[in-house]
Amino acid sequence: MTDFAVKVTVRNARLLRAIKAAGFATQADLARFMGKSPQHINAIINFREKPIANGDWSELAMDISSALRIEPEELWPHHMRDLLTARNSIEAEIDAEQLAQIAAPSSLEVDKPLLAKLVAAITHPKRRAMIEARFGLTGEPERTLEEIAKDYGVTRERIRQNELKAFREMREKARRLGVAVPKHPYRY
Fold first, then answer.
1. What does the pLDDT look like over 25-81, one tens digit per residue?
2. 4-9 and 89-94 as β-strands: parallel, antiparallel, unpaired?
3. Is the N or C terminus of the chain more exposed, i.e. has fewer CB atoms within 10 Å?
4. Considering the domain boundaries, does residue 91 fall inside one?
């Protein structure tokens, strides 16, 4: 027997985090910066509009990606590109056990042995050292973007960009080896 009616709002959390990380307080601020209507930005955040049009990135997706200085693949991975919702919400009736599973905290544990194995795929030595420091692969505690940026005399954003490039290289190596593709542990 179902005891709960659950309504889940479906929004692109990756995009929302990127908007905040880029220094925009709201989606409307991003829209003003881009010279676009807030309704257009909200449509793509709420999955009422696809980021892909005719087999390529839509103009809006490219504009958003450019404004946030993030590759579109980072904002809309394969599993999110074709998702459309009528009202950006999904409703379901569930029982207490299903609700407990949904509410259970999930772990963002990093698979460090796999990560260490794939770090060798990073071609740039400084980028490799940044990843090792970031995820504590040298025996030291994990370090923040800010701490690593201070060591290299660059901005936090530059370290983040290098981190994303390193993960692209590691994902490619993982695909070639036929192992599970590592996800960036702090982006989900």
1. 999 999 999 999 999 899 899 888 889 888 889 999 999 999 999 888 889 887 777
2. antiparallel
3. N
4. no
